[in-house]
Amino acid sequence: MENEAYWILSSEGKNYEKLKKDITTECLIVGGGIPGITTAYLLSKKGVKVTVVDAGKICGGCSGRNTGKVTSQHNIIYSKIKSEYNLKKAKSYYEANNKALNLMESIIKENNIDCSFERLPAYTFTESDDYIKDIEDEFEVCKAIGIDCEYHKSLPLPLNIKAAISFNKQAQFNPKKYIDALAEIVIKQGGEIYENTTIKDVDKRKLNKITSEDGYVIYAYNLVIASHHPFYDGMSFYFARLEPERSYIIAMNKTKDFPKGMFINVESPSRTLRSYEGDGENLLLVGGEKHRVGKGDEDKNYYDILESYAKEKFGEDEVKYKWSAQDWLSTDHIPYIGYINAEFDNIYVATGFSKWGMTNGTVAAMIISDLITSGDDEFKETFTPSRSKSYLSKEFIKQNVNVAVEYISGMLRCGDKEVSIENGEMKIVRIKGVDYGAFKDENGKLFIVNIKCTHLGCELRWNNCERSWDCPCHGSRFDYMGNVLEGPAINPLKSYGEGPNKVEPNIL
Ligand SMILES: Cc1cc2nc3c(=O)[nH]c(=O)nc-3n(C[C@H](O)[C@H](O)[C@H](O)COP(=O)(O)OP(=O)(O)OC[C@H]3O[C@@H](n4cnc5c(N)ncnc54)[C@H](O)[C@@H]3O)c2cc1C
């Protein structure tokens, strides 16, 4: 079984051409995930001339590889925002996400989008005594905000539930079908979309000059960076304010009853559950085993762990699909949405959705489209990337110390001199003082790549589950041949004999 998300397989989506000419547009949106396509939808609906470019396919990134929960319940978050800031900020975060959920439902109804959107309760639970207090605190803050929520001491799940909180009238859907449909509407509303078009350079001006990898120039009055990790930093240090976290999902043939609802636990190991019915499929999705990118356990097969868990707890036995994805966590649980920094008034960013990008990505589209068309939005202060806490928190400092340590340890690490490698095996080899990652595929073909990350030069770590090279500093990922799988890196890894990797941070 190939590791591919069910959502991606379930909806092919239209193919859009690669950009092969210079163009001028009112608004260029880089990234065709949920924030990018929803921004394009809202702006083109208001008559703004928009152009979307994506390095791969529309919704081919994290937006097509998640669990498809559309909810303002984001695990334990409201009590955290309240203690980091105050109740007002937590309420504003809720109201933005709740508005986004309602907006998504109205877009789906208005355009008859067939994406299995279904209103259901969302539950956050714990099976550990240690987390009962966290759930109780969260419940108190949610009630103070005015959220339609309930406290539970048990749930209709075959688990040893100690405490849970539910939000009523949340939703689940098929994200790929939703985003593919929105992209088609963008075209009907006069927008343009280009796929397989990677943006490399930004020259910030009144009319921004943006250049693709192939050298084509896009002039745009407004630039929206919705590339998951911002491909352009504008001297705003996003690479140091975002932490990449990876999780794994299996979809099993569902043969037993599963309660109507979406579930997630608080403790470790993480577990997230939902069912899906559509297109002749009847699936139980089981996700979890989250870890920081590049910090997973090479000896663990996360899919096998999830499969054993699902068999033991839910009695299902056939895994039909499996996939993994990573998302960017912000330092204070709130995404970075708005002007890329306080000095720039025509470059916007949307990132740091902390694994809740369906509603938060829609919030990003609401805020950015309002800022572009009217210069104002009711939620702009809550999500502004220029808020001081996102730079100065203890987490920020800890994370950057962490990055520095990774960088140094990467430089000092000594590789294995043995070059005897079995099929399907990876070994680090040191050749003339440089560490390379050597991987032999099933046909015995050997790939030897330089494992210095092309983003900022950290040493990459092998991810045996996905056969990829993952960066523990900023989350870039490469396949065993050296191709970029996920940014912020933009250059591939060079093979042995091709010289050193081209390290390009794209900060300026
Ligand atoms: C395992 C997992 C489960 C999740 N489950 C949920 C859930 O149930 N509910 C929820 O709300 N959220 C969930 N999330 C989070 C959610 O999926 C993400 O927050 C969201 O999809 C991020 O959207 P994005 O557009 O920023 O990124 P992406 O969807 O990755 O889109 C970014 C796009 O930018 C393009 N791009 C990048 N660089 C360039 C460049 N230089 N030039 C051109 N294009 C570029 C990429 O090709 C990509 O298509 C989950 C996340 C994970 C990891």
UniProtKB/TrEMBL annotation:
- Rieske domain segment(s): 413-496
Task: Keywords in alphabetical order, please.
Answer: 2Fe-2S, Disulfide bond, Iron, Iron-sulfur, Metal-binding
One GO cellular component term, please give it.
membrane
Which InterPro entries does the record match to this protein? FAD-dep_OxRdtase (IPR006076), FAD/NAD-bd_sf (IPR036188), Rieske_2Fe-2S (IPR017941), Rieske_2Fe-2S_sf (IPR036922), Rieske_Fe-S_prot_C (IPR005805)
* TM region(s), chain numbering: none
Q: Which GO terms describe its molecular function?
A: 2 iron, 2 sulfur cluster binding; metal ion binding; monooxygenase activity; oxidoreductase activity, acting on paired donors, with incorporation or reduction of molecular oxygen
Task: Report whether Disulfide bond shows up as a keyword of the record.
Answer: yes
Question: The organism sits in which domain of life?
Answer: Bacteria
- Please give the name of this protein: Glycine/D-amino acid oxidase
Name the source organism.
Clostridium gasigenes
